[in-house]
Design a protein that fits this description.
Strand content: 5-15%
CATH class of the largest domain: Alpha Beta
Distance between the termini: 24 Å
Radius of gyration: 21 Å
Number of strands: 12
CATH architecture of the largest domain: 3-Layer(aba) Sandwich
CATH superfamily of the largest domain: Type I PLP-dependent aspartate aminotransferase-like (Major domain)
Bound molecules: pyridoxal-5'-phosphate
Shape: globular
Oligomer: single chain
CATH topology of the largest domain: Aspartate Aminotransferase, domain 2
Number of domains: 2
Largest sheet: 4 strands, mixed
C-alpha cells in the first residue's frame, strides 16, 4: 500500500466540474486582477473568520509582510514571535530590516508560550513593537493570555494563521465558552492558500483579516503599491494582489472546508485509537498530538473546530530513522520543521543572538508529520500505524 503525505486528487474529483466552470467563467470575463471575484471571496473569508474585513493578497508570506508594513515595522524594531514555525514568520520581519525575538514554545501545543512571552517582555525592551503568535499545525495559540499580555505592553498582534483557517479558540464566557476563529483576535490575521493548506488554491494566494477599519484601508492601499489614487504614492507598498482565478477557485473550495476539517478530525481520532492499541504510547516511543481544547467541544469530530489538523504531528524516538523507514515503505512523513528559525543560517550569520529555546530545539528533533488529509481510508491509517509499530518492533524497542 502507498500512503502519500498529501494527495489532492481525492479532494478535487467531486468538485472538478464546479471549479472548471469557475475557471472558464473568469477566463471569459477577462478580469484577471482584483475585481468582483476577489471582492466576493474576501467577504466570504471575512465572514467565515468572524472578521469585518478580508483583504486578498498574493501569499501567506505577503500577508505577513503587508501586515507588518501597515503597522510601521522597520529597521531597529523587534518583533516577538515563535522560532518553531515556517520561515515566512521570521522572513517577513527580516525583510523589513527588523529583528525577531523568540519566546520558547509550550511543549504540549508547539505554540508560543505566554509565560515565556511575559518573561521576555518584562525585561523592558522598548524596541519590541509587535507580536506574531503562530497557530501551528491548525490549533490556536493561547489567544486569551496572548491578547492580555499584548494589551498590557501595548503591542499590536499579527496572527500567523497560515495553517489555521477556521480553527477556533474557546473564549471563556459566563456559562461556558464562545468559539472564536483564528485571525479575529489580533489587529491582522494572516492566511495562506498554498496548495497544502486546509484551504489550498491552485497556485499561491493569501488573505489578511483586519479588525480595524482604518488599518484595513491602509493595508488595502499597501497591497497595490501604496497608490491611492492610482499613480499617487503616499506610502510604500508592493504588488501583493490576489488573482481573480485563484479567488474564484478558492471560493468554491471554501464551501467544502468545514467538511474537510471534520474529515481530518475523524482521521485524528482513528489514529489515536490505533496508536493506543499498539503500546507505543505507553512505552514512550510515540507521543500523540494534544488537542488541548477538545474537551470543551461537544463532539470530537462534528463539534467546534478546536483543531483543524493541517498537520497531524507526533513526537517519536529515533525520528530520522523512523522517517526513512516510512518513506521506504511508501508512507509519506515530513519534518515541520527540522531547523528552528533561531538556527537559520541567514539569521545566525548576522550575529543575531537570543536566549536558549530548549523546547523549540527538542520539538525540531522529535516531531514527525503523518498523512492526515480527509480522503484517507481507514485501511491507509491502519497501514501507517502498522509500519510505525514494525519499525520499533524491528529494533527490539517494543
Ligand atoms: C504556509 C505558511 C506561511 C506562508 O504561506 P505562503 O502562502 O506559502 O507564503 C507562513 N506561515 C506559516 C506558519 C505557514 O505554514
Amino acid at each position: 500500500m502507498r500512503v502519500p503525505l498529501l494527495d489532492l486528487n481525492g479532494q478535487l474529483a467531486p468538485i472538478r466540474a464546479e471549479i472548471l466552470a469557475e475557471i472558464t467563467r473568469v477566463m471569459d470575463s477577462s478580469m484577471y486582477i482584483m475585481g468582483p471575484d476577489v471582492a466576493k471571496f474576501e467577504e466570504n473569508v471575512a465572514a467565515y473568520c468572524q472578521s469585518p474585513r478580508g483583504i486578498g493578497v498574493s501569499s501567506g508570506t505577503d500577508a505577513l509582510l503587508c501586515a507588518l508594513m501597515g503597522l510601521g515595522i522597520g529597521p531597529g524594531d523587534k518583533v516577538l514571535t515563535s522560532s518553531y514555525s515556517f520561515f515566512a514568520t521570521m522572513g517577513s520581519v527580516l525583510r523589513l530590516g527588523a529583528t525577531p525575538v523568540f519566546a520558547d514554545i509550550d511543549p504540549r501545543t508547539f505554540n508560543i508560550s505566554p509565560a515565556k512571552m511575559r518573561e521576555l517582555l518584562s525585561q523592558g525592551d522598548k524596541s519590541i513593537k509587535a507580536v506574531i503568535p503562530v497557530h501551528l499545525y491548525g490549533q490556536c495559540a493561547a489567544m486569551d493570555e496572548i491578547m492580555a499580555i499584548a494589551a498590557e505592553y501595548d503591542l499590536p498582534v499579527v496572527e500567523d494563521a497560515a495553517q489555521a483557517i477556521g480553527a477556533c479558540f474557546p473564549v471563556a464566557e459566563a456559562g461556558g465558552v464562545r468559539w472564536q476563529r483564528a485571525g479575529s483576535f489580533g489587529a491582522v490575521g494572516c492566511f495562506s492558500f498554498f496548495p497544502s493548506k486546509n484551504l489550498g488554491g491552485m497556485g499561491d494566494g493569501g488573505m489578511m483579516t483586519v479588525q480595524d477599519e482604518v488599518l484595513a484601508e491602509q493595508l488595502d492601499v499597501i497591497r497595490v503599491h501604496g497608490g491611492k489614487p492610482k499613480y499617487y504614492h503616499g506610502v510604500l507598498g508592493g504588488n501583493f494582489r490576489l488573482d481573480a482565478i485563484q479567488a474564484a477557485i478558492l471560493d468554491v473550495k471554501l464551501r467544502y472546508l468545514p467538511d474537510w476539517h471534520k474529515g481530518r478530525r475523524r482521521n485524528a481520532q482513528i489514529y489515536e485509537a490505533l496508536f493506543q492499541k499498539t503500546g507505543l504510547v505507553e512505552k514512550g516511543l510515540v507521543a500523540l498530538p494534544q488537542a488541548v481544547y477538545r474537551a470543551l467541544a461537544d463532539d470530537p469530530v462534528n463539534g467546534a473546530d478546536y483543531h483543524i489538523y493541517n498537520q497531524f504531528v507526533i513526537r517519536v524516538q529515533d525520528r530520522d530513522a523512523l522517517r526513512d523507514y516510512l518513506l521506504q515503505h511508501e508512507v509519506g512523513a515530513e519534518i515541520y520543521y527540522p531547523v528552528p528559525l533561531h538556527r537559520q543560517e541567514c539569521l545566525v550569520k548576522t550575529g543575531w543572538q537570543g536566549p536558549a529555546l530548549p523546547e523549540t530545539d527538542k520539538a525540531a528533533a522529535e516531531t514527525l508529520a503523518l498523512p492526515i488529509f480527509p480522503e484517507l481510508s481507514k485501511d491507509m491509517l491502519e497501514f501507517v500505524v502498522a509500519q510505525i509499530l514494525e519499525f520499533y518492533q524491528g529494533r527490539g524497542m517494543l
